[in-house]
Amino acid sequence: MKRNLYLNVQDKEAALENYLDALGEIQTESEMVSVTESLGRTAAEAVFARWSSPSYNSCAMDGIAVVSSRTKGASEKNPLLLREGEDYLDVDTGDMILPPYDAVIMAEELIETESGDGYEIISAVPPFANVRAVGEDIVAGEMILPSGHEIRAVDISAMLSAGVRTIPVRKKPAVGIIPTGDEMTDIADVPDTGPEDGRIAETNSWMFDGLVRENGGIGKRYDIVPDRPELLEEAVLRAVRECDIVIVNAGSSAGRDDYTVHVLRKLGTVLTHGVSIKPGKPVILGIVKGKPVIGLPGYSVSAYLAFREFVVPVMNRFLLSGGRAEEKIRAKLTKTVMSGLKYEEYVRVKLGLVDGEMIAAPLGRGAGASMSLVKADGFCVIPKNSEGIMAHEEAEIRLLEKPEQIGRTLVVIGSHDIILDVLNDLMMESQSGMRLSSTHMGSMSGLIALKRRETHIAPSHLLCEEDGTYNEAVIREMFPGEKIVLIKGVRRRQGFIVKKGNPLNIRTVADLTPEVRYINRQKGAGTRVLFDYLLKKEGIPKMQITGYEHEAATHMSVAVAVQKDNADVGMGIYSCARTLGLDFVDAASEEYDFVTREEYLDLPVVQEFLRALRSREFLAKLEELGGYTAEEIGEIRKIHNFLS
Description:
Blueprint: H1 12-23, E1 30-34, E2 47-48, E3 58-59, E4 63-66, E5 80-83, E6 88-91, E7 103-106, E8 111-112, E9 118-121, E10 131-132, E11 143-145, H2 153-161, E12 166-170, E13 174-179, E14 184-186, E15 200-202, H3 204-214, E16 218-221, H4 229-242, E17 245-249, H5 260-267, E18 269-273, E19 277-278, E20 284-288, E21 291-296, H6 300-319, E22 328-333, E23 337-338, E24 344-354, E25 357-362, H7 370-375, E26 378-382, E27 388-389, E28 394-399, H8 403-406, E29 409-414, H9 419-429, E30 435-440, H10 443-451, E31 457-460, H11 472-478, E32 484-498, E33 518-521, H12 526-538, E34 551-552, H13 555-563, E35 569-573, H14 574-579, E36 583-597, H15 604-613, H16 616-625, E37 628-629, E38 636-639
Parallel strand pairs: 13-16, 13-17, 14-15, 17-21, 19-24, 22-25, 29-30, 33-34, 33-35
Antiparallel strand pairs: 1-12, 2-11, 3-10, 4-6, 4-7, 5-9, 8-9, 18-20, 20-21, 22-28, 23-27, 24-25, 24-26, 26-28, 31-36, 32-35, 32-36, 32-37, 32-38
Helix pairs in contact: 3-6, 4-5, 9-15, 9-16
């Protein structure tokens, strides 16, 4: 079958509008459910009270029931004596108030007589004072909820109080999910050691299933369909019979084995193949037998974004819902984000509040970088026909995280170490509501972010070649006249990560001959500074290293590259080599510290970080990871930066 071509890539808004118009009015169905099971459902019609609440005149508080007209004239100068059985009855909250009694005096306003035969009052009470009259809350026959209302916990209580026991709700749309691809393996069939080479664990269908349920639908997952058009036809026709909406995952792009668009054209109508968003371009909007069938890209981030932009609006049509309002904020980007003119691009960002200003740190932009979705607090949307957004400029962010959580986030930008994840876990476990959000940009970039007040803490391990010390020299140079402190972290083993058994016998940088494939760290990373220092010390030109320009953003990325034979050797920390079962050759013992401003030490998020850093639990985890010592951990050193 010939390769697909995106003949008419459409703008997102136009594609969606045309698609919804083509689908026309959706014939929605309703079903009766118990009110107690209706949370989150959408009322299919208006709900009316069957009885009043309260259904009788009831006492609103503890005290005495009185006849209001008999209390007239009572004052501080002329107290009125009320006798039990003659002038009042003792009542508690919720008791029925029957004629002739029509008011309640609360216990705190009563003056007990010395004889104990009654009470004195010093003010009159009006009729129905402290009495909940019949129907005060709900009157029989009044509307409790309108049609289309999403039912909340408080609504359930109100309906039950009004005698409503069952309610008609919009039937949840059934969404069929068809994963495709010869290379895909059902997650249940993947061994504990991971998928075989050439095979991919199919996980998108589970993400879609969760998204369907989050948005009020019922997911129905089908078996993986191999890349054979006749099998895909059968799967689509079955799903169309059994479901209200159908998703075909993968096979929507322009590859030789991407058959989805051909199958949907054969079975029905294709209105759109390709939209101008990035990631997420390979979207197919089709209709088969009157039902929406949507082809979504295979890469997880593309699939997620395309689901939000196209599947959710279609589901809302079935639920007659306008959907949830999307929260947006303005935030300052920590680095420049370039973009092409042809697409509206969604850049995942981590957010935090530093010096009262919202900061957005861009994450990895790959369409398959699913962890960027896990870590993201929001999306920075770069409009079509824009070349991007410059560093330190403000941009609009669509939130994925709650704003209040962002305000309890410790922003950490700088050098990478897996202990940052451990510290975040300890902060989250403490139930303080605080968390650590780390962006791995290298030691130097972290210090620059601290200089610009775009981070609370900058992890750093920058070597001073002159005296062999770490961090303090560069801090004095970068922050003249500013009050900067160094929170001492760990000493860690840094060296060469190599395959098990060290088959190339790598011992020093002198062993990195042109035949050896090296993987480097990014510019500004402390590990790269150390590697350059070792090369300089041995008189080895950088360009003699095969793969010097092959960069990785984290120590774990270096270790994985060696494990998967994308490189023979890379420089990193011992704990990462140990985690992946690789060998390690010591090159240096370095100091991995945390740089911050003195004024930030009093921030609750920094105090919580210090608590986690100094905790016994953290020290135990360091021992478990291996390759760390913590002689000075948590010590705070003020760096004296004198202006010249």
